[in-house]
Specification:
Layout lengths: L1 E4 L3 H12 L4 E5 L5 H7 L2 E7 L5 E3 L9 E4 L11 H17 L4 E8 L9 E2 L10 H14 L4 E8 L1 E3 L6 H4 L3 E2 L8 E3 H14 L4 E5 L7 H11 L6 E2 L10 E2 L2 H6 L15
Parallel strand pairs: 1-2, 1-5, 2-3, 5-6, 6-8, 7-14, 8-12, 9-11, 10-13
Antiparallel strand pairs: 3-4
């Protein structure tokens, strides 16, 4: 039995993979209109909301009775106070721990946005220069989860997601964009699902793992290519004459230590 808190785009793709493997999957959504969709997939679903003050409301506690809880709750950009996100994650974990007294494992989908633009390769064990409030909060969430007593945790730092209806060409088409020479960090949704499957099957606990394709073209190269291929207006790139700030997120741990084999390795290739 596996529970997914936040069955949005990522959560639904993950649920489909787990269901094909005949796992019992419980999932949550904040919208009633999503219940029928989740139920039609075979997900035992419930309505779950967490207020900005950290109050949890759920119509069934069953989702918190799984030994494995996958949290894909997004870090909303419209939060005026980024600390709201920490309160929400902490509230979910406390609710889970209060209801479930057996051995617990939390898999948390974090973000490579935790890394600053260092103009170099960044790895999981690097000290991070936390500049923005969002970086601080995301880092605090990760450290909170990894330090929980009697709870195992796995942190997946995901790069930008693409695939299926989320096409690269649409990300920046027609927009005015800076940093034309900045390197891009992306990953196909199927590879994120594959990585979660690897983590579950190999019981990879108490690790931080970068989830990113080992292909980092510049913004101008990638988005101009896909805009042309899909018949859309290319982004307009501003050039102020200064060097673009960037980071290249390493997937060495995932590929070399954990032996994950990517399905999508070239961001210029066609994809599902």
């Amino acid at each position: 039995m596996i529970s997914i808190v936040g069955c949005g785009w990522l959560g639904q793709h993950l649920a489909k993979r787990l269901l094909r493997q005949e796992d019992l999957v419980l999932g949550s959504t904040t919208r009633k209109e999503q219940l029928d969709l989740l139920n039609s997939l075979g997900v035992k679903s419930s309505i779950l909301t967490v207020s900005e003050s950290g109050d949890v409301s759920v119509d069934s506690d069953d989702i918190f009775l799984s030994p494995t809880l996958i949290i894909t709750l997004p870090f909303r950009r419209w939060f005026k106070d980024p600390m709201v996100y920490f309160k929400q994650i902490k509230a979910l974990v406390e609710y889970y721990s209060d209801l479930n007294t057996s051995k617990k494992w939390i898999i948390f989908t974090s973000s490579t946005s935790i890394y600053s633009m260092t103009n170099k390769i960044v790895k999981e064990d690097d000290a991070i220069n936390l500049v923005s409030d969002r970086q601080h909060v995301l880092y605090d969430v990760e450290q909170y989860l990894l330090s929980l007593p009697n709870v195992d945790a796995t942190v997946l730092r995901c790069a930008g997601l693409y695939g299926y209806d989320r096409r690269i060409a649409h990300f920046l088409s027609g927009k005015v964009v800076s940093g034309r020479d900045a390197c891009v960090n992306l990953i196909h949704i199927d590879d994120v699902v594959g990585i979660v499957d690897l983590v579950l099957n190999q019981c990879i606990k108490n690790h931080i793992i970068n989830c990113v394709t080992n292909h980092h073209p510049t913004k101008e190269e990638l988005y101009s290519f896909h805009s042309k291929k899909d018949g859309l207006n290319a982004p307009v790139f501003q050039d102020d004459g200064s060097q673009a700030k960037y980071k290249i997120v390493s997937n060495d741990r995932l590929v070399n230590e954990l032996q994950y084999s990517f399905q999508y390795t070239n961001l210029f290739s066609d994809y599902a």
